[in-house]
Write a structure and sequence with these properties.
This protein is mostly helical. The protein has a domain of 51 residues. Helix content is 79%, strand content 0%. The chain has two helices and no strands.
């Protein structure tokens, strides 16, 4: 196949490889959010570290939901 004549040939050929990542990525980020939230509550950490972990969990959750909402399948 002459890739120069069809610029989308490469992106279409790689599409099946990205499908699992596009589907599982947001789920993995939401799971990481839940783990981070639980760790902030269950582990004996200082208050600033707990607040930082909670904020990190919030950022991870927003990224996961945004990725799910904006992905194109």
């Amino acid at each position: 196949m002459n890739v120069g004549s069809n610029p989308t040939a490469i992106s279409r050929s790689c599409l099946p490889l990205w499908r699992p990542l596009a589907v599982a990525g947001p789920a993995a980020l939401v799971a990481a959010n839940l783990i981070t939230q639980q760790a902030a509550q269950l582990l004996p950490v200082s208050r600033p570290a707990g607040i930082t972990m909670s904020l990190a969990a919030l950022v991870i959750a927003v990224v996961g939901v945004g990725w799910f909402a904006l992905r194109r399948d």
